[in-house]
Amino acid sequence: MTDEDIIRRRLMFDGDGTGEDRRLNDFLKNISKWLRTDHKTEEDGLIMFDSITAQLEFVKHSRRLAHLRRRQINKELQMYANLYDAMQSRINERKDEIETQKISLKNSKIIKHNQMQYSMLTKSMNQETPRTESLKYLDCLHSDIKDIEAQKEEVEEGLNDRRKLFKVLSLAANNLQELLSKEETDGGGRVTQKRK
């Protein structure tokens, strides 16, 4: 038997590290000693027997303690496992809440941006004159343009009439000038005397 096998066997006997293997060895030695010895008096045998039963009770007691300890450890392990599962589920819930909050934050940013654009559009639209007033103003402008065009035509007709009159007047003045110059050349003496 190798040292490793001996250590493994000792660990199997004394799995919890309570020293039970030593107690069991002492208990077995005492039993074999009690069986091998020749008790001179019954009292010596009873003392040894009481010692063996006390050791047996102590071993039973330590086994019960180890069993209770193991049960308590298992309960605590189960409690910690349940606590871990509860914490993990809470963490997952919080992660889901964070994701939904991120999505709602993104949506609220989009909504806020759209509201700002809408308010800017409404401000610019409110600064402009209403459509009905613009149409009335356009109608007034069209009627003013028609009036101005009519006035322009009247002025152009008046100008044409005056041009014609001016031409007639200019022709009459030219004719008169020619006539006067002919008269001067024909009867120069009289004209010069009149002028003087």
UniProtKB/TrEMBL annotation:
Coiled-coil annotated residue ranges, if any: 138-165
GO annotation terms (biological process): mRNA processing
Primary localisation category: nucleus
One Pfam family this sequence matches: THOC7
Record has Nucleotidyltransferase as a keyword: no
Keywords: Coiled coil, Nucleus
One GO term describing the cellular component: THO complex part of transcription export complex
Protein name: THO complex subunit 7 homolog
